[in-house]
Each structure stands twice: as structure tokens, then as C-alpha cells.
Specification:
Layout lengths: L1 E3 L14 E5 L3 H7 L4 H21 L4 E8 H6 L2 H15 L2 H9 L2 E8 L5 H14 L5 E9 L1 H16 L7 H6 L11 E4 L18 E4 L9 H12 L8
Parallel strand pairs: 2-3, 2-6, 3-5, 4-5, 6-7
Antiparallel strand pairs: 1-4
Length: 243
């Protein structure tokens, strides 16, 4: 089951990003470093997702895209680890405190990715969360779940073949409309934590002119001051968009 949701305007202010995408890397390494179990590592990482989205809103950000689970993760991680992660995600999406936080901040959640491999209860909870928050307009949070950049491209190629046939001519607008992420706007700033300096295929179409920021801290330690540094680094850059 693939969903094609994801919204939010790409109207960055003159002084900051309107859309931030985050690769929240380092939960497992953070847990090992602090001698915690995986449960603590992943639960702390999930909590931090909500925190960072709300902090970003206060800096004028109106769209957040968070990579919650890649297709590679779903294939390569052990069954026990995925089971733990799925249980934590399920607990989170049904948590009334989370719903209240989203309501208080008028933040809508949009699920993007292939949900077919997820447990039924988690799949239903994600779609329920999307439905319950759809009227909120101040912040748009795109959760990339069961998502991979190459899968997104394949989705577009398959859609193109169905719509246009072998001889169909494809323009930028029509190509974008066939992406799984078609409704996600271009990304102004991509943040990756844990010191790794690669994009791993996140939003390949929307990241064409994104500014990149790599933080050394593991995701659970990425705090308000770290987000502020990333945004201020973005403000100091001159964006050329190929000019």
C-alpha cells in the first residue's frame, strides 16, 4: 500500500528555511555509547522527532520532512529490531499526548511511503494520525515511512509507462506528479545527524537545490541549540539555484 500524501508550502522567508528535511541518524550508536538498550535509543529518537518539529515551527519553518524508516532499514535490520521499532511507533501514533501536541501546534501529519510491510495496527495508526490532523495548517510534517529515493523514482517510471505508454513525452511537471512524494515541496535545508555526510537518497527530486547541514551529534542529543545553529548556517548561505 503506497500513499502519496505530503503537503506544505515552500515559502521560505528571506531569513530562514521554509522546509527542512531531516535524516535522524545515530539512535543505535547513541544507545551503545550511553550503555542503553535499543528500546531507550529508539524511544529517545522518536521523542526528539516531535521536539524538533515544534522547535522548527518557532523559527518560521512550515514544512518538516522526517525519514522515519527507509526501505533499506526494513530489509537489512533484524526481525527483533524491527519489531521493537514498530511497537514504539505504534505506541506513539496512538498516544493522546502526541495528538494533543499536534493539535496545540496546529501541525498536520502526512505519511509518505510503502506501508504494505508494516504491521496492520501500525499501518492503521499512521493513517488515523493523518486523518485526525488533516485540518491543521500551521505546520506540515511529512513522515517518510517505508520510503527510499530509488523506489520513488521507480514509482514515477512505472506511473509514466501506465499513463503515457512507450512514446509518451515527459515534462518536469508531469514527471513530478508521478512521484510517490509528488505533493512534497522542494527542500530548503537537509539536516543529517551523527556525523555521516551523505544523503542516502532522501527526496531526490525535491533536494536538487537543498542546502546541506551535517551535525556531529547523534539524533537523540540533537537539541534546540543545534537546530538553531543549523538554521543560522542556512541563513548565512547564498543560494544560487543554478544561476
Amino acid at each position: 500500500m503506497a500513499t502519496k500524501h505530503g503537503r506544505g508550502g515552500n515559502t521560505a522567508s528571506a531569513c530562514g528555511p521554509g522546509h527542512i528535511a531531516i535524516i535522524p541518524d545515530g539512535n543505535r550508536r547513541w544507545a551503545r555509547l550511553n550503555r542503553f538498550g535499543l528500546l531507550k535509543g529508539y524511544s529517545s529518537g522518536i521523542t526528539r522527532i516531535i521536539d524538533v518539529c515544534i522547535w522548527a515551527k518557532r523559527y518560521g519553518v512550515r514544512t518538516m520532512s522526517i525519514w522515519a524508516l527507509s526501505t533499506e532499514n526494513a530489509i537489512s535490520r533484524s526481525r527483533s529490531e524491527l519489531s521493537l521499532l514498530y511497537r514504539l511507533y505504534t505506541k506513539t501514533v496512538y498516544d493522546k499526548k502526541i495528538l494533543r501536541t499536534l493539535s496545540d501546534n496546529q501541525a498536520s501529519v502526512h505519511i509518505v511511503g510503502n506501508l504494505s510491510a508494516l504491521p496492520k495496527r501500525l499501518r492503521g495508526g499512521l493513517l488515523m494520525l493523518e486523518k485526525k490532523t488533516e485540518a491543521y495548517k500551521e505546520l506540515s510534517i511529512n513522515l517518510l515511512v517505508g520510503y527510499g529515493g530509488r523506489d520513488d523514482i521507480l514509482h514515477a517510471i512505472e506511473s509514466s509507462g501506465r499513463r503515457h505508454g512507450a512514446k509518451g513525452k515527459l515534462g518536469y511537471d508531469s514527471a513530478r506528479s508521478m512521484l510517490m512524494t509528488s505533493q512534497i515541496p522542494d527542500v530548503d535545508l537537509i539536516i543529517r545527524t551523527s556525523g555521516e555526510q551523505r544523503l542516502s537518497g532522501i527526496l531526490p527530486w525535491q533536494s536538487n537545490y537543498s542546502e546541506l547541514y551535517f551535525a556531529r551529534k547523534y539524533w537523540p542529543d540533537f537539541g534546540r541549540a543545534d537546530l538553531k545553529r543549523a538554521i543560522y548556517a542556512f541563513r548565512a548561505r547564498q543560494r544560487r539555484f543554478g544561476r
